Amino acid sequence: MKLNPASIYRIAMMLVLTSIMRPALAQDKHALTVQQAADYAKKNSIQVKNLLLDVQLQEETNRQVTSSAYPQLSGRMGTTYNPNIAVQSFPDFISLATYGVLQKEGVTDGSGRPITVPNDIGLLRAQFGTKWIANAGFDLSQILFDGQVFVGLQARATTMEWARKNVEVTEELIKANVYKVYYQLVVSKTQIDLLDANIERLQKLQHDTREMYKNGFAEKLDVDKVDVQIANLQTEKKRVENQIASGNLGLKLLMGMPMKEELVLTDTLSDSQIKSGILEASSYNYNDRKEMQYAELGRKLNEYNIKRYNLSQIPTVSLSGSWSKNAQRNEFNFFGKGDWYTFSNISLNVSVPIFKGFYTRSKIQEAKLTLKKTENQIENLKLSIDNEVETARINFKTAIEAMDYQKQNMKLAEDVYEQTKKKFESGLGSNTEITAAQTDLKAAQTNYINALYDAIVARVDFMKAIGKL
């Protein structure tokens, strides 16, 4: 077949696009261990992202507290127009002075009487000011001592640690949930493997039964029963596969992974993995728990709060100053000729709290009660941790025993099925017996799968309870 230039061009473009898209498609696949899945969730969970934003918000709040200790400088500029300048009344000091001089010199009036100062010399009225007034200047203030600002500066590191610890508490909770969902999917895959083994086992039985039926050693009913069992197992396999697909989507949601991306679970699960490391991690300390660390930081912040209100009762000292230029005009010509007069001052200010209607005393008492409440919550948290650890320890021990028992029972059911199958093939057993053996094997496998998942959940709960997840 001969290709024209246009066809060659289209084929070349398709090859180029395919080579470009293939790496992009490969990036959408995530093959993760359970730890990698937990790390992915820490980076991409919306809940964690919002808490990290809270950390940044706390940083900004701390900057606002710090700014209170820095000098505060502001500039100002303004102008005022006075359409009607206020008239001021004041004693007629001119007449008063004139009468005083005349009286002192002994001057007499036309009648020859000495001139004296009258009792009422009247008032003068005049306007003071100009139509236009302008001013420009700078104001500077600096806190020299303020107990509340001082405590706020001390508490900055604790508030940041408190915000970060809240992130860690949430991360640990998400990690525990990721572990549980991840291993649930791993256990479901183990269930698929068992179902495949059962289907393969029954398919072999199906073949042998058909051959026996052809040779007259089995009935058609025996063949049909095996066919029904295989169909039931295939249906159950499909159901489990659908559950895995739904669980996979749920795990992506928990991790913050886009649904369109592919998630592959690489970890496996065994009895020894579930049991490993438990004896080494059996001891625990309250401070190993993120919740306890978070609560202790809350108590420390409450102590700072009491200190803040106590220091609000002592004087505060600040320094302030201003520098200004003023001008007065009868016309708006400030940028032309004319004088601007300088004015400046420096002030030391001491504010002494004397009485606030018992407000401060009430705030101190309120902060102390809040601290006491926090201390009670810490004591209750210790009791809760003790209860959680002991409950998790009992549940884990019970789950391990159940898992071991169900594993042995499943192995025994497999042996019974194999022996029953051999009897059936040799003509010494009935189809009813092998059907019952297959049913018992399936039940034993289901019980083992449930026990396996219960054991891994109990392990995760126990490790979380002792703060070593």
Provide an overview of this structure.
With 469 residues, the chain is of the alpha+beta class. It folds into 3 domains: 28-68 and 146-314 and 356-465, Outer membrane efflux proteins (OEP); 78-83 and 130-145 and 319-352, no CATH class; 86-128, no CATH class. It contains 11 helices and 8 strands. It has helices at 5-27, 34-44, 46-67, 93-105, 147-154, 156-214, 220-255, 271-275, 290-311, 359-425, 431-465, and strands at 29-32, 72-81, 87-91, 123-127, 132-145, 262-265, 316-329, 341-351. The strands form 3 sheets. Strands 2-5-7-8 form a 4-stranded antiparallel β-sheet. α2 packs across α6 (156-214), α3 (46-67) runs antiparallel to α6 and α9 packs antiparallel against α10. The longest helix is centred in the last third of the chain and has 67 residues, at 359-425. Mean pLDDT is 85; it is low at 15-26.
CATH H-level superfamily of the largest domain: Outer membrane efflux proteins (OEP)
Biggest sheet architecture: 4 strands, antiparallel
Strand order of the largest sheet: 2-5-7-8
**Fold-level CATH name of the largest domain:** Outer membrane efflux proteins (OEP)
Number of structurally distinct domains:
3
What is the approximate shape? rod-shaped
- How many distinct helices? 11
Q: Determine Rg (CA atoms, Å).
A: 45 Å
- Beta-strand content bin: 5-15%
End-to-end CA span? 65 Å
Task: Count the E strands.
Answer: 8
Secondary structure: helix percent: 55-70%
Poorly predicted parts = 15-26
**CATH architecture term of the largest domain:** Up-down Bundle
SSE sequence, one letter per element: HEHHEEHEEHHHEHHEEHH
Mean pLDDT: 85
SS class:
alpha+beta
| CATH class membership of the largest domain | Mainly Alpha
